[in-house]
Design brief:
Length: 182
């Protein structure tokens, strides 16, 4: 529900129209502890909380049911004044396609009966070449896997030769739905 974050040099809102203009929220996961208290907190702040949606409502909702990424045209990105600040090392790298997701209806959760719950669908991209794992919209991993495979093999071999553990990551696919049991 809360899709805003801040880094050392920018503030990002992934659903600004919903958050700031319409004060609406869409639940895509409800299994966490304290969920009910969090919903009450936002309801008290005046948010309308959608737990499920009918397909005919989609065009009226302030949520995009298409591929999205950090910093796309539907996001607000506000750069911060970093004058006199020293950038952290390593500095965060913004790779739009490797920080992406798709908001989807989840008919499986309701037995294909409306209204549908919503979920966020992503692949988790991980590689010995990356320091972090990335969430990527479905399909991006198919694009990047061949590019990672050969370089990752060489890097894994180099790490073994240096006595380091190459299991830090390896190119792989973890398909996730941020629905009931993520």
């Amino acid at each position: 529900m809360v899709m805003n974050f801040m880094s050392w040099d920018r503030v990002v809102s992934l659903y600004p129209r919903a958050t700031f203009e319409r004060k609406e929220a869409l639940v895509s996961f409800s299994g966490a502890g304290g969920f009910a208290n969090a919903m009450l907190k936002y309801a008290r702040r005046g948010y309308r909380i959608h737990h499920s949606v009918f397909t005919q409502e989609l065009s009226n909702l302030p949520f995009s049911f298409t591929g999205r990424w950090v910093g796309d045209g539907k996001s607000w990105t506000v750069p911060l004044d970093t004058t006199d600040l020293i950038a952290p090392v390593p500095q965060a790298r913004w790779i739009p396609e490797a920080n992406s997701w798709t908001l989807r209806l989840n008919p499986e959760a309701t037995g294909n009966v409306e209204p549908f719950e919503c979920c966020i669908r992503v692949d988790t991209v991980r590689s010995v070449l990356f320091r972090f794992r990335y969430c990527a919209a479905l399909g991006f991993l198919d694009y990047i896997r061949p590019k990672l495979h050969d370089r990752g093999s060489y890097e894994a071999q180099r790490l073994k030769e240096e006595g380091l553990d190459p299991r830090y990551g390896s190119a792989g696919r973890e398909n996730h739905s941020l629905c009931a049991n993520f």
